[in-house]
Amino acid sequence: MASRTEPKRTNVPGISFVRALDWIEEYRLDKNGLQILLVPDSASPVAGVMVTYHVGSRNEAIGYTGATHLLEHLMFKGSKHFNKKNGGDAFALLERKGARVNATTWNDRTNYYEVLPRALVPTALALEADRMRNAYLRETDRVSEMPVVRNEFEIGENNPAEALDKQLWALAYQAHPYHHSTIGWKSDIERVPIERLQKFYADFYRPDNATVTVAGGFDVKEVLACIKKEFGAHIAPSAPLPELYTTEPRQEGERRVMVRRASDSNLVAIAHKIPGASHGDVPALLLLSLILADGKASRLYRALVDTSQATDVTTICYQLRDPSLLSTLVTLTPGTGHDRVEQTLKAEFARICTEGIAAKEIAKARQSLRAYIASRSDGPYALLSSLNEEIATGDWTRFVTFPEALARVTAREVQAVAKKYLVDDQSTVGHFVGTRL
Amino acid sequence: MSKDFAAVREFALSGGGRLFVAPTNARDLVIVEGSVRGGPNLVPRSERVLPALAAALLDAGTTSRSKNEIRDGLAARGISLEFGSSGDRTRFSGRCFPEDLPRLLNVMCECLNEASFPETEVKTAKALALGALADERSDTRAQAERAFAALLYDASHVNYRPSVPEEEHEVRAASRGKIRGFASTLGRTGLMIAVVGDVVAAPVHAAVTKAFARLDNRILAVPPKKMNRKQAQQQERHIELNDKANVDVLLGAALPVTITHVQYHALRVVAEMLGGGFTAHLMQTLRQRDGLTYGVYARLAGFDDGADGYLKVWASFSPARFAESVALLRKEVDLFFSKGLTELALVQTQERLVGSYLVSLSTTESLALALHCIGQQARELSYLSDFPDIIRAVTRADLHAAVALIPIDKLALVAAGTIGKS
What we know:
The complex is a heterodimer. By secondary structure, chain A is α+β, with helices and mostly antiparallel strands. Helices cover 40% and strands 21% of the residues of chain A. Chain A folds into 2 domains: 15-231, 2-Layer Sandwich (Cytochrome Bc1 Complex, Chain A, domain 1); 255-435, 2-Layer Sandwich (Cytochrome Bc1 Complex, Chain A, domain 1). Chain A contains 15 helices and 12 strands. In chain A, the strands form 2 sheets. A 7-stranded mixed sheet of chain A has the order 1-2-3-7-4-6-5, with helices on both faces. Chain A is globular and about 60 Å long. By secondary structure, chain B is of the alpha+beta class. In chain B, strand 4 and strand 5 (89-96) form a beta hairpin. Chain B folds into 2 domains: 3-212, Cytochrome Bc1 Complex, Chain A, domain 1, CATH 3.30.830.10; 235-417, 2-Layer Sandwich (Cytochrome Bc1 Complex, Chain A, domain 1). Classes of the chains: A alpha+beta, B alpha+beta. Chains A and B meet through strand 6, helix 4, helix 12 and helix 13 of A and helix 2, helix 4, helix 10, helix 12 and helix 13 of B. Chain B: GO terms for molecular function: metal ion binding. Chain B: This is Insulinase family protein. Chain B: It comes from Candidatus Kaiserbacteria bacterium CG10_big_fil_rev_8_21_14_0_10_56_12.
C-alpha cells in the first residue's frame, strides 16, 4: 500500500531545489528565503500544511513573556484577506469543511497547521501566507482574547505536574529565557501592550524565519506553484532578525524548589542540565532517558512503580536549540515520602554511572525508537509534528540522520553521558507537596 | 464500501467474534485494538473496580512466565501492550512491527488466559489504584465528572459513578481471589479485534484465529441494561477545592435513548452544532465573542455497550468570573435550543462532521479504534463508509425531534474548583 515516491527535483521558476533526504524534499523560495519541505504521499486523501516560525518563548523577555503564545491566539483573529468580516477566517473556511486547524507554541518555535482533505491545501497555504505578514493584531482583539489565554494559564495551574515543572525550569535557568514557560507569567499575559506584540510579530514572523511543510496527498508541482504565488507576495525585511545572545551561566551546586498547595497529589522532579540538540552527546542522552523510564521494563518503573512508591514516572530528554534539561518526574503514591523517592531516583542514577548499561537495555531502547519512528509517519499530522521539532532545532535533517546516530550509540557511551550529566551540582530538585484540602 | 475503505476486510471468528483487518500506508507499524466480554457492567455494583484491577495485572505474571519475563520480552521487540476495562468489556491495545504480530497476539492471549495474579502484584496494583484515586480528589475535572454522573443517574445505572471514598473502599476490599474470579470469566466470548497498518489480510486472519483458539469460549451473559430511573431536574452542585486557579463546569442531562434510537445521529449533530468545535455555537459566543473561557465543548457520552447515555457540555472558567460565566453558559445553551437549529447551521455542521470524520481516519490508530467501535456497537462494517451519508441525511425535522429528547429546562450543572472566592 505504500505510496510514497522517491524524492525528486521538481522545477518551478523562482524556487530553488536544495536537497532531498529520505523521502523529504527541500526547496527555497528565491525571493524571500522561505524554506519549503515537501513530504508527498500520493495515495493519501488527506494532507497537512504547517508553517513553523523560528520563534518561541526563547525570544521573549520580562514584560512580554508569553508573547509568542498570545500572538498564536491573535493570529486566528483575522488577516487582510482572511477574516470574519469577509467570511474567510481560518475556521469558517477550513474547520467547517472538516479540517483540523490549530497552532502550538514551544520554547524555540511556534507552528500553525491544518490537516485537511487534499483539495483544501491551496486555501490553507493562502491563509497561512496572508497571516505571515498581514495579521490584524488589534487592541480590541487583545482585550477580548487576553482572558481566554489567562484561562488557559489557569487550567495549567490546576495541574500539579505543570505547576512544578514551571518552577523547576524557573530555578534551573536564571539568565536564559528558558526560565519562563511558553505561556508566560500571568501579569505579562494580562498587561503586555499591543504595540509590544506588534513589534514582536514584525520582528519574527517573516518568510526568512519560517519553514512551510506540506505532507500527505498533494501534487508537488502544484503546491510549489501555490507557495510561490502566496508566500512570494512577501519580501524579507531588511532588518536582521533579533539575536538571542544571553547564555546561561554555569550552575554551581544543586538547586531546590518546593511548591506547597492544597492538594492530594505529591510529586518529585529532578532535572539535570544537558547540552543543546546539535551536541554529539544528545543521541546517548536520549537513549539514557528511554532506559530510565520508557515503559514497564525500564529501570525507574521497576524501582518506583513496581515497588508501590509511585503511580507514574517519566523522563524527558528535552532536545532544544540551547542547553536544555533531562527531567524526571515522579507521581507519588499516598503515604510515600518525597525524600525517599528522591533517594531512590538518585540511587538509580548512581547505579547507571557506576555499573553501566547492559547491552540488552540498549537493544530495547533502540527497538522503542524504531517503534517511535514508525509512529511518527502515521498520518500527516504525526509527520508534520515530529518534523517540526527537528526544524525547531535548526536542522530538519536530524529527522533522518538522528535515528542513524542513535543506532551507533554504545552502552559505554550511555554510561559516559550519565557520568557527565547526572551530576548533583548540575541538577535542580523539585517537590510538589500537597497540603490538606 | 467506498473506495477509501475498500481494503478493509472483515472475518467471522468462532463463537461470534469479529476480526477487522485494514492495510494502510503505514510502514513498519501494526496497531491492534481488541476486546472480550467482561467489564465493570457485568459485576456486582460493590465490585466494579475488579475488572480494572484485573486488567492492570494481566501482564504482571502468568502461569508460565514472570512479570519481568513478559515485559522484557515485549520491550526487546519494541512491542507495546496495554490492558484496560470499561463498560461490558476488557480491552487490549498493542503496537508492533509487522513481523511481530503473531508474537503480540500470543502474549495477549497468554495474559488473558493464564494470568497468575501474584499476591505481591495484587498489593501493588491496589496501591497504584489508590494513588490514582488520591490524585483525583483534588482534580477539578475528575471531581466534576464523578459528581455529574451521580447527579444524572440512579445508583444502579451503569453510568453512575461512586464517590472517590466509595471507590477507595472497593479497592481496599478487592482480594486476589475476587480478582482471579473475575478474570476467570474472560474468554473468547464477544471477541472484537481490529488489526490495522502494515498488514496483509489473510495472514492476519490466520494468526488471529490460531492465537485466540487458546482462549476458552466461556459464556458470560450480558443482562439487559436498565434504563435510568432518575428523573431529570434542574440542579446545581458546587464542589469546593482550595488553591485552584480554574473551575471545571459540566452542564447536561441524561437522555432516554441508546445508539439504536432513530434520532441518535440527529442527537450527535445537535451536540456538534452546540459545541463540537471552534465554529460551534458555544465557542463562537463564550470564547470568541465574550472571552470567558479557553474551552467549551458539547458531546454525547455514556452510550457504550447499549447504555442510555447523556449530553454533556464542558467548560473551563476563571474563578473571578464564575457566576457571570455560568449565567452566560446557561443563556447561550437556551438560546441555541430555541433559535440555533437553523438550516444553515445544520448544513455547515454536516459538512464539518463528514470532513473531520474522513480526516480523522487518516491515521492507523484512529482507523483501528473506529473499527473496534463498529464491532463493539454491533454495527455492519459498511457503517465505516456509510457514516457520512447517515449524517448528511439528518434533517431539521430530525434535529427538532432529537432536541425533544433533551430535557432542556432541567439541565444539571456541576462546578469544581475554588468557587467561593468568586
